[in-house]
Fold these 4 entries.
Entry 1:
Amino acid sequence: MNKTPLLLVASATSALVLAIPSEPRVVQRDAGPRFSAVQTDLFSGPGAQPNAWADFDNDGDLDLFVGFRRARSRLYRNDAGRFTDVAAAVGLELVPEVRAAGWGDFDGDGHLDLYIGFAGADSMRNRLYRNEGNGRRFAEVGARYGVDLIGVTRQPAWVDYDNDGDVDLFVAFRDQPNRLFRNDGARFTDVTQESGIGDPRRTVGVAWFDMDADGDLDAFVANQDGHEDGFYRNDGGRFTDVAPALGMNQPGRAGDHGSVGPAVTDYDNDGDLDIFIATYGPDVLWQNQGDGSFREVARGTPLAGAYHSTTAVWGDYDNDGWEDLVVASYLADQAEAPDHVFRNVRGTFVDVTPRAVLEKGSSHGIAWADYDGDGDLDLALANNHAQGTHVLHRNDLSAEAAGRSLFVQVLDADGRHTRAGSEVRLFDAATGRALGARLVDSGGGYCSHGTAPAHFGLQPGVTRVNVRVTLMTRSGRREVETRDVDPAGVARRTLEVRAPR
């Protein structure tokens, strides 16, 4: 199988043909996604950095937290597609310079809690806000649980690294070794040293997934300031950096280059998970070879453009069954450094960046979610420039196209969000053909961790599907399959899959 992707960019006025001897293709430039800005009077204000979706009030729709520099945080409660900022009312109107945010149910009570990290090394202590019941009030408990860290905080992630059923806390830093805290119920225990995951380099982004298919979560670590990247293989709770052995460490980078934001999905629909890395320098796409190794396939293509990228997110905006890619760019002296939207046409990437994203784009946070329940992915962007904003773009797909989708929410046996890093695979129920894989969010979109369900667009001709979820358990990888699902018959097109006890 030839796993080399076809990647190209076309101008706004012409088609670009890329001839590959074994499989030539012509890809016409299309108009790209059609977006409409939502509640522009509310989704305004400069300085936005992390943004993360979660149903914090358990009412069945997704709400949005946005952290800011030079301004207080906002928590946008979603009421049937209409948003209200309730941060102050629930106790989350934080001081400025929020740089990181992660949703997770650390105490297992069925209510999502929020971890907040700050930008300054000698200023604010990081905070852990416990949700005291359907989002009515949040109480700060960071000191009580021993996670009120001080440092230049970046990616937080709520992941079950030891497969004991509760979520542990990982926090990346730019100024000190990364930290891992084991959840011991009444308190978190710092296991950084004994686990070996305390990378001392300048980390910004981390992506957790089971890279070697051995039943536990590994961590790809994106490091800045010319430092090499890390890939920490988890062997029973002890981590080893295997990036050099895999050729994925990127040695010899200049001091002003480095990795920022990893994003994981199955972009080529072959059933395994690949990694795109947004970088200061040429961006990188690591294609999973299915045998525990990865190959860099962006080099020499427009996906490897030096866009000074901060983060990237995968999402099938047109519901054609192929994951598209949004890449955010950051330049300190530009409010709107050009972002990029790449449409995935059966493994060929075409630049289809719409004018709306060029005019009101991101510099940091990016997060897809179907906030209005119509079946397509909407896009929240965060720009931390003094003239930037944090626009919410509604995806204006046709009703027919929007309906060609399925969302899969993976929960534990008690209905709690503790299964980050689980894998979801889709198959055509009629033929058994594999349709691709997705990862339950384990952190991304710039220093954020949300709990939006995994999303699949449906390829033409697919009407019913089999859904296979792979969970990480004490006994290794365990699969749960739901067969012959009619996406049109699922409420809000969201299938809930619970882990067995």
Entry 2:
Amino acid sequence: MNLIQFFIANRVEVAELTLEHLRLVGISMLLAALAGIPTGILLARRPRLEKPVLGVANIVETIPSLALFGLLLPVPWLGDRADRLAILALALYALLPIIRNTYVGINGVDRAILEAGRGMGLTDRQLLFQVQLPLALSVILAGLRVATVVSVGVATIAAAIGAGGLGEYIFRGLAMVNNNLILAGAIPAALLALTADLILGLAERKLRPGASAG
């Protein structure tokens, strides 16, 4: 049976595993954005926290995914459900680019624009939400783009702890030395990553300051 025939014969299972994969990535990215963007804003307001916070995020990024899953396994409540554990691990991996890009984007706003805003009577909160975040949005989105693409790839490893997703085919194929099974997991995962990269890349360019004028 060739790969196309495999996809046709197992289309229902392929669709289910793809949806599981999207669920793992989607929830983890939501959690990472909810934690990472406010943290990046905090670092822009409190620069002295930059090195310790980004240092911890960098350390997490260097931990091999299987090792991170193993470290989180004994945690109460998380270890009871493989999908919870995988979602938390993916969210931790996604934090670094989101925090860093949020921090860089806000810090990169022209000081003259900020001074003009203050001259108009805007408070720090108004400057953040009406000036800094809108101008930094494309940079923040670039961080989300990188994090999403990385998460789609790392999520394939989640199948090793029974969290489901397209990695099921990859690990099954490795155990059976079946290239079709490996490709059945790898190709849809790669297509998901490419699609996410394309969509978020288009949004990033559209939100870039001066893009509409160009």
Entry 3:
Amino acid sequence: MNFSRFEKNQLKHLAAKLKCCHDELKFTLEDIDDSYYEYSKYKKDKDGFIKTYYDGTPKKRTITPSKGALKKIQSSIKRNILDNVVIPIHIQGGVKGKSNITNAKAHQGKKYKFTTDLQDFFPAVRTSLVYSVFLNLGFTNVQANWLTRLTTYRYGLPQGAPTSPALSNLSFIPIDEKLISLNYSHGITYTRYIDDLTFSSANDFKDKIPEILSIVINGGFKVNYRKTLYCGKQTITGIDVGNNYIDAPLKIREKAKDEQLSNSTTKPYTTYLKRIRQTNTKKVRK
């Protein structure tokens, strides 16, 4: 890759911003594809259980982590750029202090709930969206192009890179804003936990669902209709949401009971159950 004098100055400024070595940054930009490796991993639900197909076959996803100098540079991009961006309150995943629990809590007490899921979310965040994120953060065209090259793989966000969660959140914000505009005018609460979209209201809003889905699809993303549900009581990001409380689903409560009878010094399910229930003002029945 031959750099003009202008590009050399731009690269020098970017390296200073990232607090990394100029030569290392230049070398990495010249050899991106060799900085990733792939492996398969079982898909798990919000409670940590392995997902399966109808025939019982475990579901897998391809993970593409970065390595070496690229991983180091991506960590620097996350630390020195992405971590400094103020994230809107409706985004509950991949944000410090937020979790699937805080996401579910936002919908407690709402009679009508609608949940949907985005298919292959990270790969669906195309390079053009990532490029726009960096432009909006104030980087020049050439710097935004380099940052996009450093954080995308095969035209999308790589599953397993340290920058991907934050960039997925920031890339989806234009769609979030359209959803918020629609929801605000109809009294609907909206939150997003990575690729899980949740809507709730005290009033029936079933007639708004086609418009909600249209906004998502027109934004270039696919909806997982198998995980699209509109009803009253339901599980939101792995949490049972009621009128006056939230609670862990039955399988988690049973795991916690088993832990109480064991001699194990670590009780992750019990700890998780306590974290959920401590958000309630009213005591949940065991």
Entry 4:
Amino acid sequence: MIRKQTKKILVGNIPVGGCSEISVQTMTKTKTANAVATISQIERAAQAGADIIRVTVNDEAAAASIKEIVINSPIPVVADIHFNHIFALAAIDSGVKKVRINPGNIGNKSKISEVLSAAKSNNVPIRIGVNSGSLEKDILIKYGAPTAEALVESAMRHIQIANDCNFDELIVAVKSTSVLTTIDAYRLLSKKTNYPLHLGVTEAGSVFSGAIKSSVGIGVLLSEGIGDTIRVSLTGEPEEEVGAAIEILSALNLRKKYIELISCPTCGRLDVDLISITKKIEPLLKQIKKRLTVAIMGCVVNGPGEAKEADLGIACGKNEAILFVKGQQIKKIKEEDIISTLLEEIDKMPGAI
């Protein structure tokens, strides 16, 4: 696919836009005032593969903690600001690497201008985060609903405000809870601006349903070359958001996972407990930092072929399996030894990152 070339923006040491790799973002779910818990959550998100982390700065206690969080975070911290622009100024002063503001609730132009001035002085980019749940009243009245056109008009209005203040370091998002509205809005916005776009379906839902909605909305746009950074918004832990985002990028060959697990969907031909095996080994594989493809297949129809194509493969039969390494059949193993054998073979293989 051909990606649209957008303006390159630096969020700390992470490039967003231009020819840069599409970055993965998530957001902390802890109370920001609890710096220890927040830093711990950031560390887990970074370990899962997050490139950038967003932290709410919503009260004085959060503003007082943000500096400690920034200092101890292994990845760039973005301050998420709503309603009170004073917290944006405090976050910038504390060293955050980007500020996200929602134009519908940040206040009047003078307050936005003050934030932009501080951001420019500190080389901090701004994300204009338009959300279907908090559009400006006049735009909502004009369109009657948070349509794609309404979201884009709000975004373009605040891009113009920023440009009028001689501020150009912008990343833009136009998120909706509706997948179709989200897709339409980003398509329209992409035609109107060359600023990098932050993709996401807002308040997507639970880990299961939200990941599916996000995969459809974000995946369609990425497949069209639209988007520079993504967040999968889930009612779940940040690590789950990051994992879903990486899966989306991997499915489109936009990011390499460490270990790519291929497993069959199972059917009535199955003679081993492949579902249990896969559930047990998947979290173990996520901890291994090697670029490998591992196939766990259930029967003779597709099993041997898929197993041969992988770096390491298992083709199961009746209560046993055949082990393949780099396309070569190595040995038969018992069903109860599949997980331990795979882990042993992975340990022998090169490819550590």
